[in-house]
Automatic annotation (TrEMBL):
Subcellular location: Endosome membrane; Golgi apparatus membrane
Primary localisation category: membrane
The protein's name: Transmembrane 9 superfamily member
The entry's keywords: Endosome, Membrane, Signal, Transmembrane, Transmembrane helix
Source organism: Nymphaea colorata
Transmembrane stretches, start-end: 20-40
């Protein structure tokens, strides 16, 4: 969310396009949740986790 806030301060999102900020938030959340899931799974397997 900090990244999106910085982008809005720089002027990437314009006031007349109200949905752009929310769309960017949803897209960034979707991308980072996939990365977080991969990282969590990788760490779990490296620690020899057995209970899925």
């Amino acid at each position: 969310t900090i990244f999106i806030f910085i982008l809005s301060l720089v002027g990437v999102f314009y006031p007349y396009n109200r949905g752009a900020l929310f769309t960017a938030l949803v897209v960034i959340y979707a991308l980072t949740s996939g990365i977080a899931g991969y990282t969590a799974t990788s760490t779990y397997l490296q620690l020899e986790g057995t209970n899925w």
